[in-house]
Each structure stands twice: as C-alpha cells, then as structure tokens.
Amino acid sequence: MTERWLIPGLSVLSGLAIFLACLLGSTPLAIERVLAALFGGADAADRLVVWSIRLPRALAAFLVGGALGLSGAALQGLLRNPLAEPGVLGVSASASLTATVAIYFGLVALNAWFLPLAAIAGALIATSLLALAATRTQSVVTLILIGVGLSSFSGALMSLLMNLAPNPFSLSDMINWMLGSVANRSFNEIALALPFMALGVIILLVTGRGLSALTLGEEAANGIGLNLQRQRIWTVLGAGLATGASVALAGAIGFVGIVAPHIVRPFVRHDPARSLIPSALLGGLILVVADIFVRILPSTNELKLGVVAALIGAPAFVWIAMQRRAVHD
Amino acid sequence: MTKLVANALTVTAGEKTLVRNATFDVTQGELIIVLGPNGAGKTSMIRSVLGLTPLAAGTATLNGVSVAQLSARDRAQSVAYLPQIRPLAWPNQVRDIVALGRFSHGAALGRLSQADADAVSRAIAACDLTHLAHRTADTLSGGELARVHCARAIATEAPLLIADEPTAALDPRHQFRILDLIKTYVDTGAGALLVLHDIDLAARYATRLIWMKDGEIIADGSPADTLSSERLAEVYQIDARVENGRVLMEGIL
Known about the structure:
The complex is a heterodimer. Chain A is an all-alpha fold. Chain A has helices at 2-23, 31-38, 44-79, 91-104, 107-110, 114-136, 140-163, 168-179, 187-206, 209-213, 218-223, 228-250, 256-264, 276-296, 305-327. Chain A is built from 15 helices and no strands. Chain A is globular, with a radius of gyration of 20 Å. By secondary structure, chain B is of the alpha/beta class. In chain B, 33% of the residues lie in helices and 30% in strands. Classes of the chains: A mainly alpha, B alpha/beta.
C-alpha cells in the first residue's frame, strides 16, 4: 500500500531536506561538523551558522510550506475545487497587505505580536468573504474570480502604500513582503508565528473528517450528518490562522497550497480528509528544497523564495486548470 | 418504530409560498411516493420536513422531537437522505463513496470500524456494485452512479429513507432496478418517502401516493384510492386513462 508509506516517507524526506539545508550554503559544512553543532559539540562558529542561520531558516521554510499545503488542502475540500488555494483566492495577498499596513503605521514597532495578529486578521477577512460567497454561489468559476478580485484589490492597496512610501527603506521592506522569503529568519520570529500556526493546524486536522462528507456536495453532506455551518467556520478559521501566521513569517508565497495537495490526492484515493497531513508535509518539503536552491544558486542577488515558488507553481496552476476542463463541463 | 410527522408545514421564499399547510407522516413499512408537476413544492416539502429548509409555520417531528432541534448527526442516523444527484467533487472510489453513508456513525474513510465496513459491504452487495467497488466515480455510467448513491443511502441502515428523484435521467431498466432496491430496503423493515415523476412506476411500487399541486397536498392515499384520470387531469393537466392501475397517457389537456 503506497498510502501507508506516504506520511512516514514524507516525514523522513522532510527531515533529510532540513538536515541538507544545514549542510549547504556559502560555507559548506561537513556532515560531522553539522551533527556536532546540532548536538552540542563543535566550535562556536559552526554552532552559530547552524543554530542561528541555517536551521531557523530551514524550519521557517518547512513551517510556512506546511501551513500553506495544509490550508490549501483544507480549502480545496471545503470549496470542492482543486484550484482553491490561499494564494489564488487572495488570502495570502490580504494577509500581507494587513501585515504591511501594521508595519507602515508603526504598530509592529510598538509590539512584535501585532505582525502575526495583523496578518491573521487579513487572512481571516479574506477566508470569511470567500466562505460567504461560497454559500451563495455554486459556481466554482465565480469563487475563483472573487479570489482574483480580492487578490487584485489587496495588490492595488499594496501599490498605493508603496506609492506613498516615505523613504526607500520602507519601500524595500514592503517589496520583501510581497515577494516572500525566509532569509534571515530567527527562532524569535518563528516563536511569534508558531502559536497561531499550531492552533490553525490543530483546528484543520481535528475538523478534517467533515471535508470527506463534502465530496457529495453540500446538500448531501448535510444529509449524511455534517453540520455545514460549523464545518465552514472551523475550516475558514483554521486556514485563516495557518495562512496568516505563515505570511507573518515569510510574506506571500503562492502556489505551494495548490501543488502539494494535487500531488498527494491520488495517493489517498482523493479523500480530502486523508490528504491533509501528507499535503502539509509535502508543502513543507517543497519549500525547504526550493529554499536550498535559492541559497546555492550563484546569482548576484539572492532570489526570493516566493518568486521561485511562483515560477514553478503558476505553470502548475494553469496545467491543473486545463486538465480539469478536459474532465468537466 | 421510527415516525416522521409533518404537521401543517408552510415554506416561503420571499413573497412566494412554496409549500402550504402540508400534513403527512412517514413510518417504517411504508413506501410513499410524492407526485406532482414541476414547481409543485415537492423538493421544498421534503427538505423542510428534514429541517434543511426553515419552516414559516407548522412543525416537523421525528419520534416526537422537532427536527430543527436534532443535530445533523442524530437526524442522519434516523433518516437517510438522497438529494437530487449532483456531480461528485473528486474521483473517489465507489467503496469510499458508499462508506460516506456511515458518516453519521462516526466513520472516517480509510479507517472503518468492523461494523461500518460490514454495513458498507452489505449495501454494495444489495446494489449489485461488488464488481465496481474499486472503480472511481468518474468512470461510471449514469445508471451505475445512481446505484452508488443509493448504496450510500442504504449503508446508513437508517429506519427511514427520503429520496428526491432517485431515478432521474435513467433508462427504464435502471429505473426498475433502483425502485426494486428501495422496495427491498422497505421490505426489510424500513420506510421510504420518494419524489418521482413517473406516475406508472409510482403506482406500481407505492403503498401510498401523496399528490401535490401549487404547494398543497391535494390527496394522500393508496394508489387504488387516489389514482384516477380525473386526478391526473387536475394535477398534471394531462389527458390520461387509468386501467387496472396502469396509466395510459394521451396528451395534454
């Protein structure tokens, strides 16, 4: 059974990728030096490189990818649509907008917790609007269009903020948010995002079973005993928390949430509930590996992780959309 | 004995009254078929008796408890509901779709308890789907898919079944098959309430017919008592003869 090996296999691969991320970089470290640094030996310089730079960066990539993969899988289950994803639906864009606003108006300087809170507020506004729209329309196309609208509107407000930016420094700060990156992340920043992310992940996993019922459509799902209202609230809340926290940590990184569940689904017999954990692991794995490439690529300016994710993810999105057309309508 | 009682149900949508003063009951051992033209309020009536549409007036009770107060899960364990068939979101395997019928019993796909797995296997066998159990839904014909949905409802093993046009868009042979399945289910001690458009089939299978027109129930009784050419003229505005319980349609009036 391939399904039985899916979760253990992805966990092992993720662990290996995070370890590999500690080895590779501008000063390549030998395996024994990394192991020594991880488990308390080694000299101070090695420990600094591993514990302060490479490990937090790799963990941030894994957590962000995991949260986005899980949110994507859950939103796809709720909206019964393989194209639903925090990035496509404008959830990430809304979260990075509110995060930028919080930075711009100095709220984050007052208290660091305002950053994740602002990002989560933005994500929750977007997911709630989408869930509200989903109850009014059966049309998948309408829903995606609403997401595109949300995304464009957040982008427009973001451009407005950049237009009004008082100095080049705040401008480059904002651009960093829009592009998405896990460079220079520390355990402190992870600690700010992690509680919200963990809460979102727990909510999504605990309420995941209802997503299987939604396979039949909302009416029949209700008929077989699903409380639709409650399912919508929990999934929207969980995806909003997880996506908002990931944006607070890394800015807007798109398409992970669409690619990971798409790869996972055939292995779990297309059951939305069983796709959740593997999608999270695969999403994390994808971003850790992508971030390793970003770091070892010999470019003059380091590429942003969000840019690389979009370069791979956007064609994948188009491909999935075209396949869907072949089967349906 | 499980009994679903609708008392003076009224359903409105904005200014329009979809169902007015509908009173009926469903209990085990009966196969009740609701007849009426498009827009007569059949779907609204069965949705409201399940508590899926809010009532403007009247009460719907399951064993004396208002359905509005029942949790979705408790209601689903007592009444299996088969809405008009909609496309599935994902290309799931037949066995997994049928297993969703056990959702109200707490089943999670891929980790079925022995009791759930047995109920699923029984429903699959009853609906003659054993050879299709591992096929994915997107490879099935319309008739096969209708049987899968039927099996899903039967797998719940609820005392009552409510189905909205379970034979829509099926050829005559498959219509017979679905109704035979439901009749067998009723013969094992369940009760069923179906919406159908085929008057002849309805008369053949029903123990009771409920006739609806313009949101109201205008007759409720056995096919022998309620099926007549006058009634068909009144309800459907068609010219039809009834001979030995068979309906011969001539045209519109």
